[in-house]
Amino acid sequence: MTEATMGEWDVAVVGGGLAGLVAAATATDAGRRVVLVEPRPPGGRARCDEHDGYVLNRGPRALYLGGPGHQVLEALGVDVSSGGPPPTHGARIALGGRLHRAPDGPAGLLRTTALTGREKVALGRALAAVPKLDASSLVGTTVAAWLDELGLCGAPRALAEAYVRLATYVDAPDALDAGAAVANLQAAIGPGVRYLDGGWQSIVDALADGHRCTVVGAAATAVAAEASGASVAITTDTGLLRARAAVVAVGTPSAARSLLGPAADDDLATVGPPVTAACLELGLRRPSGHPFVIGVDDDTYLSAHAPAARLAPPGGALVHVLRYHRVGEPTDAEADRALLWRAAERAGIAVDDVAVDRFLARMVVSGALPRAAAGGRAGRPAVAAEHRPGVLLAGDWVGPEGMLADAAIASGHRAGRHAAERSATMAVP
Ligand SMILES: Cc1cc2nc3c(=O)[nH]c(=O)nc-3n(C[C@H](O)[C@H](O)[C@H](O)COP(=O)(O)OP(=O)(O)OC[C@H]3O[C@@H](n4cnc5c(N)ncnc54)[C@H](O)[C@@H]3O)c2cc1C
Question: Considering the domain boundaries, does residue 83 fall inside one?
């Protein structure tokens, strides 16, 4: 990437998170002159921070293998092959105030002390059916209604909800679309996920350095299609630039609304609420405690990302503990901080082994959850729409594909392609 001044461009991308970086790389690879407008170092929520040799990914990050994001990254030449799977062997669940072996797979289900015999049969039947389900047949049904249909209640239901949280990060069974949730569960059970060596900074660096795109270090304040329809004006805090097409990839629906104004109201009418979480990152001098614990009782999740991936100094470990926020409910940072430390201690992590710790009170995991009432992922705002010619949207709340980073990358790719095609067919502004 190189620094640029204002001017006229084929494609302007506003926002340099995964969605914007992918859009910029896609349009650049199509031969367009692309400018990226981003006031901070690139990466957005995918950026990592290094502390004393520990790579902190701003909360846990797992790349879905076989998902649309993985496919796009490979097509753009981003190497995401090095890293490892989550340390789920011997995983535990916290239920009823105790740790139990997780009922993952037939052997785990047989041995777990978390469930009675009858509960094991009920949960086992439900889990065994998931890989064969047609996720599209559940679009428009909430997760709660789907679990009702399965007749799940008590501990098996609490566990099923915890698995949905694990696969989607969403704690909103009454709103989340079951079609979207089941698709993510199937992806988690099937191809699985990977923790990346070097964290997601490796994706950011490959996208930012591997594609010749120009950067304006500024914040956009408005994006508007010009009356002629031939170009889009991007006002920034350091000046004005014009492009034949612009991709708005600023992370959340509210950030997009602040740039687009009422032109975005049609798009935003049905978006769901944001999904947030509290995170505790622990760099350990040596691996200690259980490496994978699902907190069924308290909506938490703990996973050792290193040594599974290279994110800690040799011999060390990096553990992420996360509390899913119940969507739409108030949060209490101090209560969350205390809860996450308790979850770490409950997993057997020795406080003396902690070399680095960081608490993040409220991270936006996803700009908006796919609501069943809005038709799930297909009901999210479209990347391109007739009422905003030349202005494309991208982000983890946009487009019909995937959730989380999959949605950000897939919509970024689609937006980059649209922008490149449009700029090729428009007259010079
Ligand atoms: C704790 C946590 C855990 C997660 N775990 C996973 C996981 O395991 N798997 C998974 O697939 N996904 C996960 N995600 C989600 C994933 O990180 C996001 O979906 C993805 O990074 C979003 O990318 P984005 O580009 O849409 O948005 P962002 O990364 O938010 O990027 C938006 C960018 O726009 C810039 N911007 C904002 N306003 C302006 C403006 N006015 N002008 C110019 N630039 C602007 C910002 O500076 C930012 O760089 C997780 C997220 C969190 C927070």
Answer: no
List pLDDT tens digits, range 89-127.
889 999 999 999 998 777 888 889 999 999 999 999 999
Ligand 1 atom closest to residue 363's alpha carbon, by position in its atom list: 53
Q: What residue numbers bound the domain in which 208 lies?
A: 2-46+202-272+379-425
Whether residue 162 is found in the same domain as residue 207: no
Q: What's the gap in Å between 43 CA and the centre of ligand 1?
A: 8
Residue 265's alpha-carbon distances to 269, 399, 418, in angstroms, are 6, 16, 21
251 CA distance to ligand 1 centroid (A)? 5
* Residue at 98 is within a domain: no
* Nearest atom within ligand 1 for CA of residue 59: 1
pTM more than 0.85 = yes
Ligand 1 centroid to Cα of residue 47, in Å, is 9
Residue 110 lies in a domain: no
The burial class, CB within 10 Å (0-12 / 13-18 / 19+), for 217 is middle
Can you tell me whether residue 383 is helix, strand or coil? coil
Atom of ligand 1 at shortest distance to CA of 21? Answer: 25
Cβ pair 33, 10 in contact under 8 A: yes
Domain boundary among 189, 220, 251: 189
The answer to whether the CB of 284 falls within 8 A of the CB of 303 is: no
Domain end residue (candidates: 143, 164, 189): 189
Place of tokens 């704690």: 171
Three-class HEC string of 279-293: EEEEEECCCCCCCEE
